[in-house]
Each structure stands twice: as C-alpha cells, then as structure tokens.
C-alpha cells in the first residue's frame, strides 16, 4: 500500500502558497525563542558545523547503540531509508551529500539550524521540503537523554523516513497545514498530530507493531518501551481524537497511536478538511495523555505502571 502514490487532487493543502514565511497573526502565541543575531528570518546556519573527532565518535556510538535495538522494532521503511542514505558510514553525515541523495529520491533536503526554531518558520521549511536539523550533537554527559533535538535525533530519527514517497509528501503537507492552523489559532492541535505521528507514531506491519516516530527511534529505551512494554496504551490513530489529546514532552509516552500504513495516515489527514475540524475545536486539550475512550480502537490497554511509579527520575523500570 505504501508504494501507492497519493492523488494530488485530494490534497486539501495543495493550493496554499508557501513562497514566503507565513505571517504570525496577533492572537497566535508561540514559544519565544531568541534568534542568534547573525541569522536571517529563515533561521538557517550558513553551513553545517565542523564536528570534532570526539563528536563524530559520539554519533558512531549512538548509531551502534540504536542498531542493536531497532531491527524488528523500527518500521521497514525506516530501516530501508537508513541503508539507502548510508547513515552509518561513519561520523555525523554531511548534510550536503545526504541532501543530494535525498533530493534525487523525494525532493527533500536537510538544512542546519542552531536550535529549535519557531513553528511558523518550521512550517515554511517543511512546506518547501527542507528538513531543519539541529547542528549540534549531545555530549558524553547527555549521551543517554537530551531534551532539545540534536543532530542525532534530527538526522538519524527523522531523515530516513523522508526517503519514503508517501511519508515525504505527508511531511510537506504538514508544513502547508501550518498556515491553516495559524489562521485558526489551533497550533496546539496541529502540534499534537505531529507529536503522535512524526515523533511517536507506531505502524502495524505484517509481522507486528513497529515504530516510525523519530522520538522513539532515536533513543534506546523508548525504542523498546513503545512496542513491547505493558505500561503504555496503543490505540488506532483517529485524527479528531489525537488533536484533542495532551502529550508528555519529557518522559516516555503513556499512549501511542497506531496507523496501518503511511497511505492511511495521508488519507486521514491531508485529504481531510481541517478548516471544519478547527471550527469545532476548543482551545485546550480535552483528553489526558493516559486516557482510553469508549470510542477508541484499542490494540493494548496499558497498565501505566511506569508512570504510576513516578516515571523518569524515579528509578521506575520502563515496563
Ligand atoms: Fe523530532
């Protein structure tokens, strides 16, 4: 099913003009981020950082750690993308060479940014098939957990799936969808969709549940927890439900949402009238991140034992 191309005529975001960075309406609040003085409105670094030998080693060690864990847990498109882009060739990949290869496959490129960038600038880059990747890499001290996305999370976690034609189209459409979310002041809702798909999504493959979310695939603990632990809920993705669901940013997820294919994800989102959906949405989230609803199509009701024992920092086992 993933091999199918999506019908552009059904894309509800297709007519959005993405030439310029979208205006930030007065009533829209985004997290205040201070742009380094030497950067333009696009927040792009003039070039990729020159990494030290130790920083390249950190990449290699993170890569080796994930490759012990991901086979059989990461989705097949991710594993194929890793191989196709040869991200394990040694050291932090060169964005230029990687982008050349990626462009020839799905038209995407990877561009360096210093840190998290504002939502509206992020949308603009995605809509133009540019994936902004954090330039810096974590240190040995933060090897096991880093909250701000670094080059390992961004490149290892996100870039392989950009080789998948349907997922690549979904990401660009997500960027275009940002214009609508800004217009309706519903960034939170759109962010929840990103969170539960691009960062923490699961996909049902023929031989079992696999991860495709970059937040899962770029760390060893959640790569196992997401697909094997008893604690978290695993629920079929329903867009109306997900955009109303709160999410956890600093710990393992209490709930994961599952798709059957990237084509299904595309049909449920890009071919959907979000103007109408936003019109019916309240400003905040309706559902707690541990909730299981009567209408949910449930694959697994979690015990929530990990969260109940105190989660990250408490010594609770991710079971
Ligand atoms: Fe990410």
From TrEMBL:
Its EC number is 1.14.16.1. It catalyses: (6R)-L-erythro-5,6,7,8-tetrahydrobiopterin + L-phenylalanine + O2 = (4aS,6R)-4a-hydroxy-L-erythro-5,6,7,8-tetrahydrobiopterin + L-tyrosine. PROSITE patterns: BH4_AAA_HYDROXYL_1, BH4_AAA_HYDROXYL_2. Fe cation binds at residues 153, 158, 199. Pathway: Amino-acid degradation; L-phenylalanine degradation; acetoacetate and fumarate from L-phenylalanine: step 1/6. It is an enzyme of class 1 (oxidoreductase). It comes from the Bacteria. Its cofactor is Fe(2+). GO terms for molecular function: iron ion binding; phenylalanine 4-monooxygenase activity. SUPFAM superfamilies: Aromatic aminoacid monoxygenases, catalytic and oligomerization domains (SSF56534). CDD domains: pro_PheOH (cd03348). Keywords: Iron, Metal-binding, Monooxygenase, Oxidoreductase, Phenylalanine catabolism. Residues 1-319 form the Biopterin-dependent aromatic amino acid hydroxylase family profile domain. GO terms for biological process: L-phenylalanine catabolic process. InterPro entries: ArAA_hydroxylase (IPR001273), ArAA_hydroxylase_Fe/CU_BS (IPR018301), ArAA_hydroxylase_sf (IPR036951), Aro-AA_hydroxylase_C_sf (IPR036329), Aromatic-AA_hydroxylase_C (IPR019774), Phe-4-hydroxylase_mono (IPR005960). PANTHER family: AROMATIC AMINO ACID HYDROXYLASE (PTHR11473), PHENYLALANINE-4-HYDROXYLASE (PTHR11473:SF24). Belongs to the biopterin-dependent aromatic amino acid hydroxylase family. This is Phenylalanine-4-hydroxylase. The lineage of its organism: Bacteria, Pseudomonadati, Pseudomonadota, Alphaproteobacteria, Sphingomonadales.
């Amino acid at each position: 099913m993933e091999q199918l191309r999506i019908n552009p005529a059904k894309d509800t975001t297709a007519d959005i003009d993405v030439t310029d960075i979208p205006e930030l309406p007065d009533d829209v609040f985004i997290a205040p981020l201070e742009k380094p003085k030497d950067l333009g409105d696009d927040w792009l670094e003039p070039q990729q950082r020159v990494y030290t030998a130790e920083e390249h080693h950190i990449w290699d060690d993170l890569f080796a750690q994930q490759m012990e864990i991901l086979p059989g847990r990461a989705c097949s498109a991710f594993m194929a993308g890793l191989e196709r882009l040869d991200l394990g060739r040694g050291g932090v990949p060169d964005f230029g060479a990687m982008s050349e290869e990626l462009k020839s496959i799905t038209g995407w490129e990877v561009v360096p940014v210093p840190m998290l960038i504002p939502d509206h600038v992020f949308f603009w880059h995605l809509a133009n098939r540019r994936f902004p990747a954090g330039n810096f890499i974590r240190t040995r001290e933060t090897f096991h957990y880093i909250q701000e996305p670094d080059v390992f999370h961004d490149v290892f976690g996100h870039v392989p799936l950009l080789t998948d034609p349907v997922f690549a189209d979904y990401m660009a459409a997500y960027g275009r969808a940002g214009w609508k979310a800004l217009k309706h002041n519903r960034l939170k809702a759109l962010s929840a969709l990103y969170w539960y798909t691009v960062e923490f999504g699961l996909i049902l493959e023929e031989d079992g549940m696999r991860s495709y979310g970059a937040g899962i695939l770029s760390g060893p603990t959640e790569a196992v927890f997401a697909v094997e632990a008893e604690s978290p809920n695993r629920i079929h993705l329903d867009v109306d439900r997900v955009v109303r669901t709160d999410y956890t940013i600093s710990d393992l997820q209490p709930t994961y949402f599952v798709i059957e294919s990237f084509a299904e994800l595309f049909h449920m989102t890009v071919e959907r009238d979000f103007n109408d959906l936003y019109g019916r949405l309240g400003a905040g989230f309706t559902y707690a991140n541990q909730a299981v609803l009567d209408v949910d199509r449930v694959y697994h009701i979690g015990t929530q034992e990990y969260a109940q024992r105190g989660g990250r920092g408490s010594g609770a086992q991710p079971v």
